[in-house]
């Protein structure tokens, strides 16, 4: 039995090889005759055999790469196995998926999962300590230049980086820097053949600049208004307007906004506020705002004698600089480092001057954190609260009744224990009047009247 069982297997291969040899011999004449007719053309059988050989070679390469990756990096596999065990025993498929991802990267020569790494870093940079219920509040962040849109102008890149690092913090400073950068964009723009500036510039050139600035830091009221007016100006151009003429008109418009809505407005507001100060008044202010500082210095320049109480921000402490500047100008100053003892200080004041970052359509004021406390204390004490703000900072569309709808998280004071917002919301009932560039002689407008002022003044900018 054992001899028969051993002989059968030995004979089978011989029979099979004989059959193959006979088949090859039978097909030899036809194969030999084919090359003279068309030596480059392969028969279907030859093509099939060639494909099978290439497939087998690729499989062998993958197996070799897989074995090499497993030997070189055992730690990721062990980590994957541990994670799989912790999840209840799914995981052989997950381990296989991880091991397959490595050979692909090594065979192709690409850096594995670079997009995922960048996305993970981006997510980790954004307010990791803010509670979930406040996750809608944005914060400034530095966008790596490598992640910026390819069409973003270098001047705009520089402005975005300065905004993200708070080198440009004041709303008007950010507005002016943005407009000057847009001038560079307009000067370097060339209309593509077959298109027009009025149709091509906004979607393909201007919008990438705006998106980048918004990613770096939420736009202030003034920047949003200027962009809306700029787009309105561009849309007014006829499709047949020559490029040089349109660019010249846009550059003139930007210069007009800087001169009229920033420089001249600041001068007019400071003069108007200075004229409202009387001899022997005591003016209370919070922090340091450029309009309030300029108004107080202008009043001193007009020869008026008055006292100033400076209530400083506990975190920023830039009220110290204001107090120093006023003292050098010969103004008597009482300085308080924080909001402690606010009521008696407010009660001793004749007027309260506050600088606003923006005013909503319902008359609420957006200003640095702590402004609302000062305004409420003054209103309760019967002291007038005057807000100094340019009309370019008025918002004609949005309303606000709380401090968390439109705000920013302070990235420098964001810990697992607490976080701080940069601005607060002051209701219009605590504001006695708003001084803008449109009044004169110390006059002011009600906070609720800003929409009428905007309708009256903005049309010439677009025309």
From TrEMBL:
Domain of life of the organism encoding this protein: Eukaryota
Region feature Disordered, mapped onto this chain: 1-123
Spans traversing the lipid bilayer: none
Basic and acidic residues: bias regions: 51-66
Protein localization: Cytoplasm, Cytosol
Quaternary structure note: Component of the translation initiation factor 2B (eIF2B) complex which is a heterodecamer of two sets of five different subunits: alpha, beta, gamma, delta and epsilon. Subunits alpha, beta and delta comprise a regulatory subcomplex and subunits epsilon and gamma comprise a catalytic subcomplex. Within the complex, the hexameric regulatory complex resides at the center, with the two heterodimeric catalytic subcomplexes bound on opposite sides.
UniProt record similarity statement: Belongs to the eIF-2B alpha/beta/delta subunits family.
Protein name: Translation initiation factor eIF2B subunit delta
Native source species: Remersonia thermophila
Lineage: Eukaryota, Fungi, Dikarya, Ascomycota, Pezizomycotina
